[in-house]
């Protein structure tokens, strides 16, 4: 009996996932690095590799679209190492009976929650400014404009796992917590939070923190109009998806100091291009920029390796994945697996 075939792109995340799956009796087929694949995947070029796959491990840079999925008759599942699956057409996979698993480990989303709270506190206490004072051996200023998180209003846009982790970690900080999420009613939200409209949240919050997946609704959710609703003393934090913000509008708002500052871990194009106007704020006193790794550490990466390996094991024996993005598919998916077997 031939061993199961696992397709993995050739980027560094794929290297890590291949290590996690090594020595378990699978045939690992490596593809091109994700950053070498065009934005619109040339299915024909990849087909000789993909057609053999029972499972596709889709790292974030590899787009898995409907034509690709339709062409893969043997495919049982697509396994994403991370939480986000914007690079995968989940609706098409569900329609075709293909399971989509992902890395929604507690270490992953709680790490992001910790990092979000850290960024809020760093902005409040003007950490970049105070670091510069030491670097330049400057005298301590007579007047400081930093503030305490205590007594502030924090607005969370989205109330998913990460936002709930932020709420839990802010307990005891004596801050008022608002949230906007059209899909989470007040009685479904964590205690101590208040549901408001997006407009009210932007107008009232001292810190606006984004926790959304990228959809047609959230693309460009924060643009010039929304930034104009924020207080001039307010900060914007984005640890979710870069395209949820109109970057050009944000650059203008930061340049003109129409908001106090921002902390960004995600961008429309990643890695952040050398010519991005946002790079002008590197080292500034009011902006923190990190390369989409702010919540990641040893525990997170180990949890993702473990999740991918466990997801693959379960899928190959016809069981639900540890973390499934389209669980409503399970009955039809098991029928598909039976037919493939």
From TrEMBL:
MF term (GO), any: oxidoreductase activity, acting on the CH-OH group of donors, NAD or NADP as acceptor
According to the entry, every stretch annotated as the D-isomer specific 2-hydroxyacid dehydrogenase catalytic domain falls at 41-321
Q: Per its UniProt record, what InterPro entries does this chain match? A: D-2-hydroxyacid_DH, D-isomer_2_OHA_DH_cat_dom, D-isomer_DH_NAD-bd, NAD(P)-bd_dom_sf
Keywords of the record, alphabetical order, are: NAD, Oxidoreductase
Q: List, for all copies, the residue spans of the domain called D-isomer specific 2-hydroxyacid dehydrogenase NAD-binding.
A: 118-293
The family classification in the record reads: Belongs to the D-isomer specific 2-hydroxyacid dehydrogenase family.
User: What is the protein's name according to its record?
Assistant: D-3-phosphoglycerate dehydrogenase
